[in-house]
Specification:
Blueprint lengths: L10 H16 L5 H19 L1 H7 L1 H15 L8 H21 L6 H12 L6 H12 L1 H10 L10 H87 L4 H52 L3 H11 L5 H7 L15 H16 L1
Helix pairs in contact: 1-2, 2-3, 2-5, 2-6, 4-5, 5-7, 9-10, 10-13
């Protein structure tokens, strides 16, 4: 490598690094993943700021590939809550660390080893672009670095080519095995989460029906109270008439005309009260029927599990296997409206009363 190569050691780039580090230190992360990711970004930026010449010397290839892009990413006003941007910055830092690891004889410090483990263990949580860069660093970058070195003019001898190749191959195999193990673990977790998602969907469906059931029970109670009140009002005019006659029985002949005349408004009030009694009674029966349908749905939700998984398999063999279940669960909740009294029923009854009184007169 060229000992005179400078990038991070340039004053303008050091200024950018220090400015980015200061602003990142002032930012408060919203979740644990972002907090850990940003702490490793700080670790790399601090290390580069302390020894820029050493990182220039040991990361020349990635600097030539992505150096300017890295400086652009951390320059200017940065939205540290932008997950995709911060994931990309982490992936570039990781590539620099990985090349640094390949370039030095000594092992990485514990902090950088933990950075590597964090990238492996959480690769599924990074954005697509960042995950591609991390995967590339593990799988293909060592070979690409070696190819770049092998074809550079600075190589004077290839006496140790076999050892370097073997070392790179072993490193790739090691990280490939670790990555494969972590990917399998992520896949297993994804499968488990899929099963839990199906179960929770049915729990949510049951809770939805349960909330609807509570509302309908309140409505049923209010209608029952209204039903009792309307029934009382139906009897109230008769009770008042009987009470009046009872108290004035001795002088009934004086009030007989008033009593006779009061029958017409009394009967009208009774007819209207009976009409509203019928309306409320019909609504009460409708709500009771709806409650029965909701309870049936709640009962079905208790024992139907993994519907999303086996419904496709069952329907492929028997298209009508779950038809009844679906018809009940997803059918609209209805009430019987056939016997709902018309708004003119009460008027018709009053008309008949007046006609009979007129004929009698």
């Amino acid at each position: 490598m060229d000992d005179e190569f400078e990038f991070f050691s340039k004053q303008e780039n050091r200024t950018v690094l220090n400015s980015f580090r200061t602003r990142l230190d002032m930012y408060s992360e919203s979740d644990e993943f972002a907090k850990t990711r940003n702490s490793y970004i700080r670790l790399v930026v601090n290390a580069i700021s302390r020894n820029p010449k050493e990182w220039d010397r040991n990361c020349e290839i990635n600097i030539s590939w992505m150096g300017e892009h890295f400086i652009d990413e951390i320059s200017g006003d940065i939205d540290f809550s932008d997950k995709n941007k911060m994931d990309i910055i982490f992936s570039i830092c990781f590539r620099l660390v990985f090349e640094y690891y390949l370039s030095v004889k000594n092992e990485l410090s514990n902090d950088f080893n933990r950075l590597k483990d964090f990238a492996l263990n959480n690769i599924g949580f990074f954005s697509d672009d960042a995950r591609f860069q991390i995967d590339y660093a593990f799988r293909d970058m060592p070979v690409a670095i070696f190819k770049d070195i092998a074809n550079s003019e600075s190589i004077q001898s290839i006496r140790n080519l076999h050892q370097v190749s073997e070392y790179v191959k072993n490193t790739i195999d090691k990280f490939s095995k670790e990555l494969a193990a972590k990917e399998k673990r992520v896949s297993d977790l994804q499968e488990s989460l899929s099963k839990y998602e199906s179960a929770f969907n049915f729990v949510g469906l049951y809770e939805g029906f349960d909330e609807l059931s509570k509302e309908k029970k309140k409505e049923k109670l209010n209608l029952f109270r209204a039903l009792l009140a309307s029934g009382f009002f139906c009897l109230l005019p008769f009770l008042c008439e009987v009470l009046f006659i009872y108290k004035n029985w001795i002088n009934l002949d004086i009030y007989i005309k008033a009593v006779a005349l009061s029958f017409i408004p009394m009967i009208s009030i009774v007819a209207i009260s009976i009409y509203f009694f019928r309306v409320i009674l019909h609504s009460y029966k409708g709500v009771r029927a709806q409650l029965l349908q909701i309870e049936i749905r709640k009962t079905l939700c208790r024992f139907i599990q993994n519907y999303n998984e086996y419904s496709f398999d069952l329907k492929s063999r028997n298209s009508a296997a779950l038809e009844k279940f679906e018809n009940i669960i997803f059918a609209p909740i209805v009430s019987d409206e056939e016997n709902l009294p018309s708004a003119f029923d009460g008027l018709e009854q009053l008309g008949k009363i007046f006609q009979s009184v007129k004929k009698g007169g």
